[in-house]
Amino acid sequence: MSRQIRRIGVVLALMLVALLVNITIIQVVLARDYRERPGNQRLLLAEYDRERGPILVGANPVAKSVETGNTLRYLRTYDDGPLYAPITGFYSLIYGATGLERTENRVLTGKSDLFFVDRMSQLFAGRQPVGGAVTTTIDAAAQVAAFKGLQGKVGAVVAIEPATGRILASVQSPSFDPNLLTSQDPETIRAYYEELKDDPTKPLLNRPIVALNPPGSTFKLVTAAAALASGLYTADSILPGPATYRLPLSTSELKNWNRRECGPDGKVTLEQALAISCNTAFAWLGVQLGDEALRRQAQLMGFDKSFQIPLKAATSRFPDELDAPQTALSAIGQFDVRATALQMAMVGAAIGNNGVTMEPYLVQEVRGPDLAILQTTEPTQFETAMTPLNAAQLTEMMVNVVENGTGSNAQISGVRVAGKTGTAETDNERPAVAWFVAFAPAQSPRVAVAVVIEESGATEISGNGLAAPIAREVMKAVLR
Amino acid sequence: MSGSEPQTVRRQPSRRGAELLLLICAWALGVLGTLQVGWSTGEGTPSRLWITVAVVGVLALAMHLVVRWKARYADPILLPVATLLTILGLVMIYRIDVAAAQRAERNSAPEPTPDVYAQLTWFAIAVVLFLAVLILVQDHRRLQRYTYSFGLLGLILLVLPLAPIIGTTVNGATLWVRIGGFSFQPAEAAKILLTLFFAGYLVVKRDSLALVRTKFLGLGFPQVRDLGPLVIAWAVSLGVLVFERDLGTSLLFFGLFITMLYIATQRRSWLIIGSLFFAIGAYLAYQLFEHVHNRVTVWLDPWAYADTTGYQIVQSLYGFANGGIMGAGLGQGFPTFVPFANTDFIVAAIGEELGLAGMFALLMLYAVLIERGLRTAVSVRDSFGQLLAAGLSITLALQVFVIIGGVTRLIPLTGLTTPFLSYGGSSLVANWVIVALLIRISDRARRPDVQQLDIDDALTQVVRRV
Question: Phi and psi for A136 in degrees, rounded to 5?
Answer without folding.
Answer: -90, 170
